[in-house]
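User: Please predict the structure of the protein below. I'd like the answer in structure-token form so I can feed it into my own downstream comparison script.

Assistant: Understood. Taking the following sequence of 500 residues as input:
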Amino acid sequence: MKPDDFPTDIQPYIVPEPKGELFYKCLGCSAEFSINKPLYVCPDCEQILLIHDRYAESLKKIPGKTWQKIFDFRKVLKAPAFKGIYRYHEFIGSCIPESSIVYLGEGNTPVIEANERLQEKLNIRFFYKNDGQNPSGSFKDRGMASALSNVKYLLDQNWISDVIAVCASTGDTSAAAALYASYLQPHVKSAVLLPHNKVTPQQLSQPLGSGAQVFEIPGVFDDCMKIVEDLSEKYSVVLLNSKNPWRILGQESYAYEIAQDFDYHMDDKVIVVPIGNAGNISAIMNGFLKFFEVGIIKSLPKIIGIQSEHADPVFRYYQGKDENRKFKPVKVKPSVAQAAMIGNPVSMPRVIYLTKKYNEAAGTERVFFMQVTEQSIMEWYLEANRNGHITCTQGGEGLAGLAQAVKEKIVKANETAIVDATAHALKFSNFQNLYFEQKLPKEFSIKHNLDFINLPSLVMPDNGMPVPSQENRLKQNEFKVFVADISQKIAKKLNLKGIL
């Protein structure tokens, strides 16, 4: 559809214009800074930042129902820039012109309802939101589309030049950063730091394929993060981790899409998300808050953050009473939810700030944190994929958390849950293979349940019968004998009955 074909009351809003005035605001001292150059921490107190819009109050002049109509009709616009996360332009990057928006197909990921068997197993209606169907195969593309659109905007304004983008990663961030940076060649080049031997082969291949310079570092993600932080403090680089507030801004689109997918009715909804570096849960809280404050949604959904017992600093923080809470990083242990294996989340200050704000806006506790075992993560990951999903081990972590929340009555039977499948199953298939082969190392604390193990069966003919190969094809009669023999063996294994 063309803008002229839309209802007259929303025609002025269908194609958004750059109108907002964005600025960085420190979570510590509340100092404000211009967005005309990249900034990741407050120059005064070194606390992390959030992005605000000076004209955010003006968004309230448009009724919530009208906003709903705008977004629903904007879905059918033919302009590529507004097909992804910038469908919500006024709430994400209101100062970014259409010409600076980088769109590679991110966003609009499907919400898939679990089958009857799986819902009965958990005793709750739930959906997976398959963010593994983003271009690089993970939710990180939402934040990268925002961060790199900001970079392009700064380049287009001649405020920066010759960008070197850097990030630390457990795999997904590096894949997304390298992909989006490569789209802006030759003006942007990327370098990624990965913990040696702690990234799956599939994830390692992605930044290499996108042409990034890849550096493997001894230690874990937290060690890599300290190095890129040091680089960003001493050298002229663009940091693409979630310390970059533009990343958080883009990932808010996850909340906006869920609101739209469920016709903006959030009162009985529960959002389940693995925590990792805590950027995503921060973004989701902030996104729902923005929609709530403008009146697009009338209530705030429950949000449940999940952590493995092998990397659970946020869960531990929220176990104490408010007055006694003090954040302490943890030493992580090996986890099949490898992308969430972070002991010192960069966005922890955002979590603390936004959790308080979210609960206050809701008028009751609506944000919860749960810890799950490695065993439950692995088994729910396998269970989900055996029932029609394509989720990663972090998606298994989320489903394990939902099961635990139902058991503890944090989630009620009359509520509907949406579980974040953060990445594509193929990125973490090596954990499935190790489980099936009963080769997961002991430090993962996982016992191999034979009910879940599935291995291929090699079916061969008896008595040295000739077999086909790519190089040597069988004669017609030999091939008929081979087909009949193998067919009979497979039929026996499957307990097939003959056609009457």
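That's the full token string. The two ends are 55 Å apart (CA to CA).
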